[in-house]
Design goal:
- This protein is 46% helix and 23% strand.
- By secondary structure, the chain is an alpha+beta fold.
- The strands form two sheets. Strands 4, 5, 6, 7, 8 and 9 form a six-stranded mixed sheet that branches. The chain has a three-stranded antiparallel sheet with strand order 1-2-3, with no helix packed on it.
- The longest helix has 33 residues.
- The radius of gyration is 43 Å and the shape is elongated.
- It starts with 6 loop residues before the first helix and ends with a helix.
């Protein structure tokens, strides 16, 4: 069987007669440039979406070199939280049979907690104890006598904002003092030097005042203040039970039957 030789020639003639081939390679190049679907993918540091994670990359030119940077490489350091500054204060009233004895027991109790007696006046005693022991004082006071719950008052004052503000003001004034010191060294006339020295003296006074305020606040935060008032209970056996009626229990049945 003889092979046909005219078929390849016919196919070649059809291809050369088509419009795409007649225009040549230049026409095909124009089609590639004009067609958005045929744009080449980003290469090197060109902007685009790359990878399976969808990371957006952009380029930055430094000394004529393009460097790729990713939005995911930028991390923000979390702001450090300011520790809260809380001042704890408590007021308690206790009915006892021997006031002086109970006062001595209170002072010994507080000293055992790491505190001390700050003031005593008549039947009232003011003590200071570590703030972390403040929650333990009320159960211990109940062992000294009958605690009058109606007169018990506990206060927790948050002074964080005032403390932080005082620290910032102190820092600013110290920097200003350093600037004044340099100005004093550069002052030319005697009048200028006297004016700068006057401003330095005023700034030193303000700094000392702020430092004193900070020390006081730190002490108030570290040590809670407890004021205990002792009342003389009616003579007789000590009542160890509580009445079901709050108002009658606060009044004291021993005061009604005497």
């Amino acid at each position: 069987m003889r092979r046909s030789t005219w078929m390849p020639g016919l196919l070649l003639a059809v291809l050369l007669a088509s419009p795409g081939c007649a225009a040549g390679a230049g026409y095909r190049g124009d089609m590639l440039l004009e067609s958005p679907a045929m744009e080449p993918p980003p290469v090197g540091g060109e902007a685009g979406v790359t990878g399976k994670l969808g990371r957006f990359e952009s380029t930055v030119e430094v000394d004529g070199k393009k460097l790729a940077q990713s939005t995911r490489t930028t991390t923000t350091k979390p702001a450090q939280k300011t520790q809260r500054k809380v001042v704890y204060t408590g007021w308690f009233t206790i009915d006892v049979y021997e006031i002086r004895k109970a006062q001595k027991e209170l002072v010994a109790l507080v000293e055992g907690m790491g505190g001390y007696m700050q003031e005593t006046s008549g039947n009232m005693v003011v003590v200071r104890l570590p703030a972390e022991k403040f929650a333990l004082i009320e159960p211990e006071l109940k062992k000294l006598g009958r605690l009058d719950d109606s007169l018990t008052r506990i206060q927790a004052s948050d002074i964080t904002a005032r403390f932080v503000d005082t620290e910032l003001r102190l820092k600013t004034k110290k920097k200003y003092l350093q600037t004044l010191t340099k100005m004093l060294e550069q002052a030319g006339t005697l009048k200028d030097k006297l004016e700068v020295q006057k401003e330095i003296a005023r700034m030193i006074e303000e700094i000392e005042s702020l430092e004193g305020a900070l020390r006081l606040m730190k002490q108030q935060v570290a040590l809670a203040t407890v004021t205990v008032t002792f009342r003389l209970a009616h003579s007789g056996p000590k009542r160890t039970f509580r009445l079901p009626w709050g108002w009658l229990d606060a009044l004291g049945i021993e005061n009604l039957i005497r």
